[in-house]
Amino acid sequence: MLETDFSSLIFIDGQGYTFTPQISLKESNLSLPFVQGLAIVKFKTVITKSFSEEGYAVVGLESTDLILKKYECGEIFPISDSLGELDTEASSAVGLDRTYLLVFKEDRDILEALFELSADPNVESVSLNNFVDSSETVPNDPAANKYGGFGREQVKYLDPIRAYDGWDITKGSPDITIAVIDTGIDDGHPDLAGRVIQGPSIRLVTDTLFLVWDKTILVVPYLKTVLGPSFIPKLPLYYSSFHGTHVAGIIGATANNSLGGVGLNWNSKILSIPVFDYWASENDLRTTDLQVGTGILEAARRGAKVINMSLGGEGFFICQLGCLRTIFSHQTEKDAVAYAYAKRIVLVASAGNETKKISPFPGTAEAPGAYPASFPEVISVSALSYGWSYNQLTYFSNYGKVDVAAPGDLIYSTTLQNSYIYAAGTSMAAPMVSALAGLVLSLRPELHPSIVKEKICNNATSLGTTAAAIEKYGCGRLNVGNTLITMNSEFPPPQITSNCGAPGQPACWAGMYLAPWSHQFTATDGLPPYTWSVVSGRLPGAAGSTQYNTNTGYMWGPATFWWGPGWTFEMKVTDARGNSDIRSFYFISTL
């Protein structure tokens, strides 16, 4: 977690932005919760970069350039440089096309530079590149970390959320892709074989600027985000690398293969977008606001319908001069979330593991949010305790801005070396909600994210209606069975329609005037696509002469040359939810 209490930052005139007791950021060796030397600025219009005679990066706007020169800005990059093609309309709506990365020397007071830029009339918003941590906790009890084979005893959390009942309705669709923005996924694990799509690895790397400032050549190192090759874990690995693989197994470990555990969503594809770097130690798993935001945009670009983010970082608006000047600590994530939401993508995030109250956006220094969970577009998930039969909050889970709760203690899932492990954390709770969102979309792929959240919440198991309970559990405990059964009952089953041949109707013709014939069966209600089949009886004409298309219900055959009794058979239609209708039809042949 963060090593410095960011709420102790204050601004003192003449000294710059400082900690209490007064420690200058320029001179401090404290571990700051953001990347030094890198600012994220959204301008009100698209700008054009150039360089001043002194070698500073400028944009041709007088008031802005004065600030850039004062704090010696070395380079400016559009944030979209490495993202490829984004949807123009959605990108413009949230201002991604006007957002830039500004590089300063690391010894410059980045906070003070951003405060001045926030007051500039050409600037819409400014942000730091804050650090973000994973939301995973590993139990200390050695018995909780054992390996073992699959059994219902090891996945007790499936019963309280009625997963088995939900699977009677749908097991997911390969047309729905769930993105996992995390550490990367071991797609070589046998329980994830064929399910994982490897996306690019989004890393912070050190690059170098060669700048001429005041006729002096300076070499300025800085961190930048890059889209690297797919991250496929290989041994030896940091212990923390199991995180993304564990999350992926909760979402979609393969069912009915006699291996390990089982995911909630058996058929959806899982898109891996790795965003974590390894910092001070092997277990110090950390990323940044810029990387997470880039990951969201990349997942959207690659067609994800659900994005799981088992991660989070503290954030709020930092004020100066009575909040006339403000800096928001997670602006890139905010814009990326808005972009994905406009693209009708369901976003899910873990509430965090610090046993504290988190505020909804924007938060304050006294009551910060946890991002991305605190954004209104994101479904925030708290963790329920195994010791209370998943009826109460775990000792570590955050509360406050929580939309729904899910089991997050002693969760059995995939890990490295083709093995399985128990783990705990809101990181383990969030993917259950993401998996259910994928199941909901497999029934109704056209649903807006707000309606998906509504379906999940309206069918959750209530764990209390007091204000305190709502802060802990939101709308209640995830209930897969209730959600899917209710959705299934909202729509009538399909019905076969025909203008002839059914009881009470005149017979259909199967051959008239010694000519080939055809007939189109149709269906109403239910959820397309439909599948057609003949379940009993005899089709018109000689055996094997009549054919039909199982996808369209179109039937055809050659001339029948038959003047005796007709043919009776039963036609069946099945919709995408597995509901069906069977009707009897009578065909005759005549001259």
TrEMBL record:
GO terms for biological process: proteolysis. PANTHER family: CEREVISIN-RELATED, PEPTIDASE S8. InterPro entries: Peptidase_S8/S53_dom, Peptidase_S8/S53_dom_sf, Peptidase_S8_Asp-AS, Peptidase_S8_His-AS, Peptidase_S8_Ser-AS, Peptidase_S8_subtilisin-like, Peptidase_S8_subtilisin-rel. The keyword Acyltransferase does not apply. This is Peptidase S8/S53 domain-containing protein. SUPFAM superfamilies: Subtilisin-like. It comes from Leptospira neocaledonica. Residues 175-476 form the Peptidase S8/S53 domain. GO terms for molecular function: serine-type endopeptidase activity. The keyword Cell cycle does not apply. Coiled coil: none annotated. The active site is at D182, H243, S427. Belongs to the peptidase S8 family. Keywords: Hydrolase, Protease, Serine protease.
